[in-house]
Structure formats: C-alpha cells, structure tokens
Design a protein that fits this description.
The chain has 524 residues and is of the alpha/beta class. 32% of the residues lie in helices and 15% in strands. Strands 4-3-7-1-8-9-2-10 form an eight-stranded mixed beta sheet, with helices on both faces. Strands 11-12-13-14 form a four-stranded antiparallel beta sheet, covered by helices on one side. The protein has a two-stranded antiparallel ribbon with strand order 5-6. Helix 2 crosses helix 10 and helix 5 packs parallel to helix 12. Bound molecules: 2-deoxy-6-O-sulfo-2-(sulfoamino)-alpha-D-glucopyranose and calcium ion. 2-deoxy-6-O-sulfo-2-(sulfoamino)-alpha-D-glucopyranose binds next to loops. The site of 2-deoxy-6-O-sulfo-2-(sulfoamino)-alpha-D-glucopyranose (SGN) has 13 residues, from loops.
C-alpha cells in the first residue's frame, strides 16, 4: 500500500471513530415502519391549572384533553430556566442555557442559529421542517424549510410576521392566523413524500391576554375560585419572594392588563398604531371596548381598594387569560381534526407543551421565572398512536431538555453526545428505565427587569427542593410533601440539616455534570 493511501485510510478510520464517538447512540425509529411525523404544539405561559386534563378547577380544554385521552400526560414535566427565549433554546438544542448561549430574554441576547438543533438533524435525515408562530430568539430560524414567525413577542391583533421574504402584517387574531398558516403548510406547501416536523407555536396565553372577538364575553358572569395563597405575605422565605414585582395587586396594570379603559377610549383605542390595542381596526376595537364596559362601569362606581381590588383584578385576569386559552384549545381541535381527516393521525406524534408554567394568582402572582412549582412545571402531553397507552399518566421528573433527544430517537436519528437530556421514548412506551433521573437541576438568571426575580439555581427531587439565590447569598429549602405550596423554607431547621448537606453535594455534582460555570465560582 502506498503512503498516501495508508494515510488516507488512517484518516478515514480516525474520522469514522470520531463520528461514532460524537453520537450517544444510533437510533432506529421507535416503532417499526415509516419515520413518524412530529407535530409540536407549543404555547406561551400555559399554566397546568388551565388545562382540564390536568384537573383544572377553572376551565375546560376539550381538545387538548383529546390528546391526553389518546396519549400520555406527564405530571412532572419541568423546564430548566422558566422564561421564553431560553426555554425555546433548550427545546431546540437539548442543552442548558449556559451551553446554548441564551440565558435571558434581555435586549441584545440572540440565539446562535449556527449550532446543532434537532430540527436541523431531522431535516438532514429527510424531514420537511416548518415553524409557524412565536419564536422569540431574535435570529432567523435555521433548520426549517419553511418559517413564518412573530417578531419578538408578537401581537394579538393584526400581527406582523417575519418570513425569509421579509416582514408583513396579517389581518386577524393571532391564534387564528397561526392556525391557518399551519394548516396551509400541512395541506398545500409541504412535500408530502417526506415525513414532517411542524412546530406550531402560539403567542397565547401570554400577557396582555387579549381575547378573540368571539370570546370577549366568555366567563363574563363566572366567579373563579381564588387560590389559597392569593394573599401570601411572603414570610418565612428568602427576601426575593417579598421584593419581586409580579403581584396582581401591585404590578398588574389596570388598563393594559385588566382592560379598565377610560371613556375617551370609546372613540379611539389607547396607544400608537403599532401598540397592542392601537393596531386594532375600528371594527375590532369597538366591540372589544364595549365588551368590558358594563363591568368597568360597576368597578368605577364602587372603586374597590385593598383586598377587594386584588380580588377584582384576579377575576378579570383569569377571565382574559382563559379566553385566550379557549382560542388555543379550539385551534388544537382544528389541527387534530385535519390530521384525522387526512389519514395522518396514525403516523404522527403530537406533543402539547408550553415554554413554562405560569402563576394564576398563586402567591398573589402572575408571570413565571421562579423555581417554585407552578412555574417550574410545564404541561406535556404526548400522543403517539401504537406507542403511548391511551389515557396514561407518567409521574417521573422529565425536562424540556429531553425533547430534542426524544424526537431524534423517534425518527431514528443519532443523538449528538453534547445533548444533555434523555430521550423519553422508553417512558412513552410505558417502560421507565430503572436509572431514570431522581433530581432536576434548574438555573434562572434574568434580573432585575422585568419582575425582579433574583438569579437562582437549585435542585429538586421527588420530595425536596433546595434553592440558592447566589447574588443575595440566601437559601431556601422546602419539604414538598409537607409543604406543597412552598410557604415555609426549612433551611434553618436542624431536623433537615443532613438532608440539606446531601442536597448541596448533589447540586454541586449536577453543576459539574451539566458544565454550569457558575459552579466554579461559588463555594457552598
Ligand atoms: C414582557 C411582559 C412580561 C413578561 C416578559 C417575558 N411584559 O416583558 O410580563 O415576563 O415579556 O415573557 S409586557 O408588559 O410586555 O406584557 S416571555 O414569555 O417572553 O418570557
Ligand atoms: Ca413564556
């Protein structure tokens, strides 16, 4: 063999070795036969408490529930960083924020689209890939054959959209526009000879919770139950819980959030022509304004204060939030009907999830961010005909970090080593591996604006949660069995000292395992 040929062979063998080492495992589709289509239905800020399949005491979501009836519902699906852009970056990359580079929503933070994402890998494996709706990563999507996204947060009425051809305003209500675009791509634009990945991502139910015209009076006379902690005094916890700016009473805005419009707005919507209300056409604004008038007049006549004001705001907040959820649920119904009608149901994995959970008055709050249960959890329902047992429930701790690997395994695509989650495919088959994770690592870092939630990281196990607010140098420890609402930190309780010491060690090893650089700088 001549020298050139020998070196070529050595190089070739070395490279194929490297190639294998860079993959966690070679996948084969989890079911025999064709690669499944993947439909990811993703909402923004959807609290578990606002989905009837999760036992909502507030509303009914019959279409989302259809997925749970035919598939698997995860009780403890959680996120690694409870805000929008960062959570979406984790979903795409299967890596924690400190490694995928997007840790906050702050201006100037842009997702690096040159990195490996699961849509890119599916595309390379022959999938047609598309994303429609909220994106919020500030760089153009990569790895998608088709994209039509909202710029930034997007708007509820007559939203602008970005595509590869530029920016264009679409007439109508955002949930409807996103639904129609999704159906249009599925029906007319995709290459039907290939399997598809469609990421169908709603803006709703994000703040400022503007309902669709047909839902403006839904729940008008309904009184929603108040959470037990609506008037939380934030005692017995670290100082962050007291100093936040996300209280319904103090920080929710009476006009733009709670629709307490002024008489002058009867003639003209508040804000400039690009603002959430200002961009409505007169024929959209008039019925919108009028729908709130009767209740607003009663409010102005009685001028509630103190706890009564909080109660009024809470009711108005829930009405509007749940009205936007009603549109999402109808939209889910339309797309599920389409799959059925086209004979796509059997070979399509449908996932329902959100970028994180949300507070619906618990602790007196709206918004998310905290490692506390309501915002750490996110809905996750998966229907995979022939794989998920209809009506099944899973109680293991799973993460948004796991979804990229799940989709890759389902499609039979090798998983890159650098991905940090774990495929949910065995769980979906009803076979939880013996060594499934017993602990979750969380790290949030956007401070102070908006909402003044201090930076923190922590560990959650089945029963306990330890949180460290590292800039404040304050700890919290909760026994979730004894105190599921997380109202009393037991950090200084000597009875828990050994447990806390053990959790600190586990926390440290999780930071090492996940390569979070914060671990190197903090000694605890
Ligand atoms: C906006 C909202 C905040 C919200 C962030 C992030 N304010 O700034 O309440 O926390 O988005 O939301 S608003 O007055 O503009 O509605 S996220 O879903 O993108 O993380
Ligand atoms: Ca969100």
């Amino acid at each position: 063999m001549n020298k050139t040929l020998t070196s070529f062979l050595v190089l070739f063998l070395a490279l194929s070795g490297l190639h294998c080492a860079a993959q966690k495992r070679t996948g084969s589709p989890a079911t025999a036969g064709k690669q499944p289509n993947i439909l990811v239905i993703f909402t923004d800020d959807h609290a578990l408490r606002a989905i009837s399949a999760y036992g909502s005491d507030l509303t009914k979501t019959p279409n989302i529930d259809r997925l749970a009836k035919d598939g698997m519902l995860f009780r403890h699906a959680m996120v690694t960083n409870s805000i929008c852009g960062p959570s979406r970056a984790v979903l795409l990359t299967g890596k924690y924020s400190h490694l995928n580079g997007l840790a906050t929503n702050q201006p100037g933070e842009v997702f690096d689209g040159s990195q490996t994402t699961f849509p890119k890998l599916l595309q390379q494996a022959g999938y047609q890939t598309a994303i429609v709706g909220k994106w919020h990563l500030h760089s153009d999507p990569t790895g998608f054959d088709f994209w039509k996204i909202l710029p930034g947060q997007g708007d509820y009425y007559n939203p602008d959209f970005l595509t590869a051809n530029g920016r264009k305003r679409e007439q109508g209500y955002v949930t409807d526009v996103i639904t129609n675009e999704t159906l249009n791509w599925l029906d007319k634009k995709r290459d039907k000879s290939k399997p598809f990945l469609m990421m169908f991502q709603h803006k709703a139910p994000h703040r400022e919770w503007l309902p669709a015209p047909e839902h403006l009076t839904l729940y008008k006379d309904k009184k929603f139950p108040e959470p037990a902690t609506l008037f939380d005094d934030y005692a017995n916890r670290a100082s962050g819980a007291r100093n936040q700016e996300m209280e319904i009473g103090k920080h929710m805005r009476l006009m733009s959030d709670n629709k307490l419009f002024e008489p002058k707005h009867a003639a003209k919507a508040p804000g400039n022509p690009n603002s959430p209300y200002g961009r409505m056409l007169p024929e959209q604004w008039q019925p919108f304004y009028m729908a709130y008038q009767e209740e607003n007049a009663k409010f102005l006549a009685s001028k509630p204060t103190g706890k009564d004001l909080v109660r009024w705001k809470y009711q108005r907040y829930l009405q509007d939030y749940l009205r936007t959820v009603a549109s999402v649920d109808e939209s889910v119904g339309k797309v599920l009907d389409y799959l059925k009608q086209e004979g796509l149901e059997e070979n399509t994995i449908v996932v329902y999830s959100s970028d994180q959970g949300f507070y619906l008055g618990e602790h007196g709050w709206f918004d998310k961010r905290w490692m506390y249960e309501e915002s750490l959890h996110t809905p996750l329902i998966v229907r995979w005909p022939g794989v998920t047992k209809p009506g099944s429930e899973n109680k293991e701790m799973v993460l948004n970090l796991d979804l990229a690997e799940t989709f890759l395994e389902a499609a039979g695509v090798p998983v890159p080593h650098e991905m940090q989650g774990r495929s949910l495919v065995p769980l979906l088959k009803g076979q939880t591996p013996k060594d499934w994770r017993q602990e979750v690592y969380y790290h949030y870092s956007e401070y102070p604006k908006p909402h003044r939630v201090p930076q923190h990281f922590g560990i959650r196990t089945d029963q306990h949660k330890l949180i460290y607010y590292y800039v404040l140098n304050e700890w919290e420890f909760f026994d979730l069995k004894k105190d599921p609402q997380e109202l009393k930190s037991e950090y200084n309780n000597p009875a828990y000292a050994a447990k806390i010491k053990q959790l600190k060690e586990q926390l440290h090893s999780l930071q090492t395992k996940y390569q979070d650089p914060v671990a190197r700088n903090i000694n605890f």
